[in-house]
């Protein structure tokens, strides 16, 4: 946690610092209104409530939230494209959807009020990261069906910043424009931030003197504290974590403040819970489990107790920044990206944390899981830095042995470490693909 914050900017201090009791009453009122509205207007929730025997009058306190049934991703897929909409299509002004390459995408609709609310959440988020009308925001999140590009864009416009609507790709051009336009804020996935740092280094550009970035707003994929250090060092900026998901809204569901002690959930609009992913039982603050979110104010596609599959913990400890919202800690993974290797649970983030502690390695890696002779095998392919790679095979082999031992201590499972030459792990313009699980092919054979 930063003890000395870099700024104390806030977009809407009245809402963000609302006294806790007032916030709770507002949440309850909004929850009651929501349940009443969708019990009538949403055919999906009308029948779900009937099936579970719940009526709007059942919600008397915030604890009654747990009487309501969960919504899961399959509900969205099964009701493709519009069956979860709670407003007629004539009131919908924007439609986003997931980029899923298999099956039908997950759709999300917005009314004009939904877009207004999202814009306000993004204005709060960018301000929380220290951005203002004085900034030039270089936005490398993809524009289009993905919510990253447009979400950041509307928020940046609201705070009056000059926005450069880049999307990802053509890295050298990104660097040139960042320099020429005097970009001060970079918004993209954390893995793409490293790709840009690498591109600048390859161009021989002295980032510290030629690029004015001071803030980065990174999210859309898991990243560790070790990754934060790496990005901050390479791009000379202060890195902020932003979370969101298309089904819930897009970026801006939660964001860090200048204290970097968790992400403030914008809980006047998004009510979070943590549940045990196996039993569905709510867990108390501080315990790690699956994040579940109820959208309190969304009109077109509200979601009740949506199971995000993201794993984290909540805290309601006061934050020195003055915001009174609940915070969640950095996401450690998703229930569906947990690898089970020889029966042991392994999260890619645990592996990343170990790899990034070593200056011999570049922050580029891929995990390949296979089944050989009926046994799971985990192969960690990680890039050496140029300098380390030039030290030759013997040094690399000695280092791999050390890393293998360290990884085993951490993961409780054996892995094969392959140190690969610089710039050979595939880079991504958006979300990095860190895991190749070949066991699925093996099972399907
Ligand atoms: O990734 C929205 C977004 C855009 C968030 C830009 C932040 C910045 P989806 O494509 O629907 O939406 O993916 C949502 O991405 O359930 C998490 O698993 C993951 N994710 C998003 N933000 C973070 C983060 C956008 N800060 C899914 N840390 C979520 C870790 C994240 N994982």
Characterize the biggest β-sheet: 9 strands, mixed
Global geometry: globular
pLDDT < 50 runs, ≥5 residues: none
Task: Name the average pLDDT.
Answer: 95
Side-by-side strand order of the widest sheet: 4-3-5-6-7-8-9-14-13
Compute the number of structural domains.
Answer: 2
Q: How far do the termini sit from each other?
A: 49 Å
From the coordinates shown, what is the CATH architecture of the largest domain? 3-Layer(aba) Sandwich
What binds here, in terms of ligands, is: 5'-O-[hydroxy(phenylacetyl)phosphoryl]adenosine
Kindly state the percentage of residues in helix. Answer: 25-40%
CATH topological fold name of the largest domain: Rossmann fold
CATH superfamily of the largest domain: ANL, N-terminal domain
Briefly summarize what is shown.
The protein is of the alpha/beta class.
How are the elements arranged and paired?
Elements: H1 13-16, H2 20-41, H3 43-52, H4 73-78, E1 92-97, E2 107-111, H5 112-128, E3 136-139, H6 147-159, E4 162-165, H7 171-181, E5 185-188, H8 190-202, H9 207-210, E6 215-219, H10 225-235, E7 238-245, E8 250-256, E9 263-265, E10 270-275, E11 289-295, E12 306-312, E13 314-315, E14 327-328, E15 333-334, E16 339-341, E17 344-346, H11 348-355, E18 361-372, E19 375-384, H12 386-389, H13 393-411, E20 416-420, E21 435-437, H14 439-444
Parallel strand pairs: 3-4, 3-5, 5-6, 6-7, 18-21, 19-20
Antiparallel strand pairs: 1-2, 7-8, 8-9, 9-14, 10-11, 11-12, 12-15, 13-14, 16-17, 18-19
Helix pairs in contact: 2-3, 5-6, 7-8, 8-10, 11-13
Residues 98, 141, 147-148, 219-222, 241-246, 250-251, 308, 310, 331, 334 line the site of 5'-O-[hydroxy(phenylacetyl)phosphoryl]adenosine (DLL).
């Amino acid at each position: 946690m930063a003890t000395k914050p870099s700024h104390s900017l806030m977009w809407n201090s009245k809402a963000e610092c609302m006294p806790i009791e007032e916030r709770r009453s507002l949440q309850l009122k909004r929850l009651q209104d929501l349940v009443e509205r969708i019990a009538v207007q949403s055919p999906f929730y009308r029948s779900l409530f009937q099936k579970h025997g719940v009526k709007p009058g059942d919600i008397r306190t915030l604890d009654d939230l747990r009487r309501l049934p969960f919504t899961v991703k399959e509900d969205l897929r099964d009701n493709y494209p519009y069956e979860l909409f709670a407003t007629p299509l004539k009131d919908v002004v924007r439609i986003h959807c997931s980029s899923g390459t298999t099956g039908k995408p997950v759709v999300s609709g917005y009314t004009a009020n939904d877009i207004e609310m999202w814009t306000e959440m993004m204005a709060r988020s960018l301000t929380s990261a220290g951005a203002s009308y004085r900034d030039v925001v270089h936005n490398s999140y993809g524009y289009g069906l993905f919510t990253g590009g447009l979400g950041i864009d509307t928020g940046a416009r609201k705070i009056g910043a000059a926005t450069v609507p880049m999307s990802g790709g053509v890295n050298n051009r990104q660097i040139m424009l960042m320099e020429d336009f005097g970009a001060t804020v970079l918004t993209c996935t954390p893995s793409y931030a490293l790709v840009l740092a690498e591109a600048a280094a390859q161009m021989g550009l002295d980032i510290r003197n030629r690029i004015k970035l001071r803030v980065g707003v990174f999210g859309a994929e898991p990243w560790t504290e070790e990754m934060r250090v790496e990005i901050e060092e390479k791009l000379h900026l202060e890195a902020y974590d932003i979370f969101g998901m298309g089904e819930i809204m897009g970026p801006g569901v939660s964001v860090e403040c200048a204290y970097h002690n968790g992400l403030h959930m914008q809980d006047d609009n998004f009510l979070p819970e943590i549940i045990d992913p196996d039993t569905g039982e709510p867990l108390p603050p501080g315990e790690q489990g699956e994040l579940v979110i109820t959208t309190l104010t969304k009109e077109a596609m509200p979601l009740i107790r949506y199971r995000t599959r993201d794993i984290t913990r909540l805290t309601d400890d006061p934050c020195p920044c003055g915001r009174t919202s609940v915070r969640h800690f950095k996401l450690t993974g998703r229930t569906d990206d947990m690898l089970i290797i020889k029966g042991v649970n392994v999260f890619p983030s645990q592996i990343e944390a170990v790899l990034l502690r070593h200056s011999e390695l570049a922050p580029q890696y891929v995990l390949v899981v296979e089944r050989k002779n009926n046994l799971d095998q985990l192969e960690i392919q990680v890039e050496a830095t140029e300098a380390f790679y030039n030290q030759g095979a013997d040094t690399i082999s000695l280092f791999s042995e050390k890393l293998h031992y360290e990884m085993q201590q951490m993961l409780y499972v054996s892995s094969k470490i392959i140190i690969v030459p610089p710039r050979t792990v595939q880079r991504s313009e958006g979300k990095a693909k860190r895991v190749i699980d070949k066991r699925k092919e093996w099972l399907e054979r």
